[in-house]
From TrEMBL:
It comes from the Bacteria. This is Ferredoxin III, nif-specific. Gene3D superfamilies: 3.30.70.20. InterPro entries: 4Fe4S_Fe-S-bd, FdIII_4_nif. Residues 17-46, 70-100 form the 4Fe-4S ferredoxin-type domain.
Length: 105
């Protein structure tokens, strides 16, 4: 049996950690990023073939003309505390969340 998580009111609760965002489904709205206080995901540049070019820091990133679009990438999954606000605000249900007792340490 895995760990038992309990709210401060004594209710059992299982955190579900964000592990991935599906770039083919995501519309890049940024709602997930806005509600995440843990900086689990960041905006990355994507080329025509779907390859991730790198993080966009907001300073005219065009990756030598290779930039096709931008999307959120889970680049710090270990920071996720599993409260799930990002999944609740996602209009496309493009995120993968895994229960805390199933996430590899």
């Amino acid at each position: 049996m895995g760990p038992i998580f309990v709210t401060r009111y004594g209710s059992r609760w299982m955190p579900e950690h964000l592990t991935a965002i599906d770039g083919t489904t995501s519309i890049g709205c940024g709602r997930c990023f806005k509600v995440c206080s843990r900086e689990v995901m960041h905006l990355h540049g994507i080329d025509d073939t779907g390859e991730i070019l790198g993080i966009c820091d907001g300073q005219d990133d065009d990756f030598d003309g290779e930039l096709n679009r931008m999307m959120r990438v889970v680049d710090h999954a270990g920071r996720c505390i599993g409260y799930g606000a990002c999944g609740r605000v996602c209009p496309k249900n493009c995120q993968t969340h895994v229960a805390a007792d199933k996430v590899a340490a």
